[in-house]
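Here is the promised in-class demo. Please do not try to memorize the tokens; focus on the logic of going from shape to residues.
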């Protein structure tokens, strides 16, 4: 009987840890649906009135039209002519608006895996057996540049310009490596066991004299 309170507490905490992520995810979906519904409400009301549809029918048709328009625009921009035309329009209009370029870069990072700043995890040796979890941001003849995020907030950190010899590549996916940063180091054993030998991509390229 002495273990009963401990069992109840452990079971309750385990149940909360199972339910809480699902609760947060469902509420996030509801918030997103409410936000989209609010933003498209004027157009949905117009469509519903013109086609004599219920409000939910107007919203569905409006959202479907927006998605179809995005698909058509993406297909157009993927062509050489469309890409050049869009680049010219962007360069002479919205790109001149302050703040547009940073927003575009953030969206590009999230939408393209090869430009994701957290796509290429590495370990950076800083001496005395100390290694930092980082992400390869750039590399070339002048040497690699690494972003070392702080935990549990990976949006802040240090930008280090280091030698290639101080880096060790990690085979673990960037998303898994990022989880260890969010968890303040918890789960790092998988990260440390996924180290591979430095390859030619990180080899020093400075000419010898």
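The designed amino acids, position by position:
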């Amino acid at each position: 009987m002495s273990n009963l309170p401990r069992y109840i507490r452990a079971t309750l905490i385990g149940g909360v840890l199972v339910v809480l992520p699902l609760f947060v995810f469902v509420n996030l979906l509801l918030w997103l649906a409410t936000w989209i519904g609010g933003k498209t409400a004027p157009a949905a009301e117009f469509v519903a009135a013109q086609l004599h549809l219920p409000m939910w029918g107007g919203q569905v048709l409006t959202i479907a039209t927006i998605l179809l328009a995005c698909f058509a625009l993406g297909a157009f921009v993927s062509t050489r002519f469309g890409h050049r035309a869009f680049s010219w329009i962007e360069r002479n209009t919205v790109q001149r608006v302050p703040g547009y370029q940073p927003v575009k870069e953030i969206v590009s990072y999230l939408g393209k895996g090869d430009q994701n700043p957290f796509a290429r995890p590495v370990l950076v040796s800083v001496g005395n057996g100390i290694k930092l979890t980082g992400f390869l941001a750039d590399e070339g003849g002048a040497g690699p540049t690494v972003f070392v995020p702080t935990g549990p907030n990976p949006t802040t950190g240090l930008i280090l310009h280091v030698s290639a010899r101080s880096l060790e590549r990690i085979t673990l996916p960037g998303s898994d490596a990022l989880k260890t940063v969010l968890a303040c180091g918890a789960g790092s054993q998988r990260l440390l066991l996924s180290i591979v030998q430095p390859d030619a991509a990180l080899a020093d390229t400075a000419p010898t004299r």
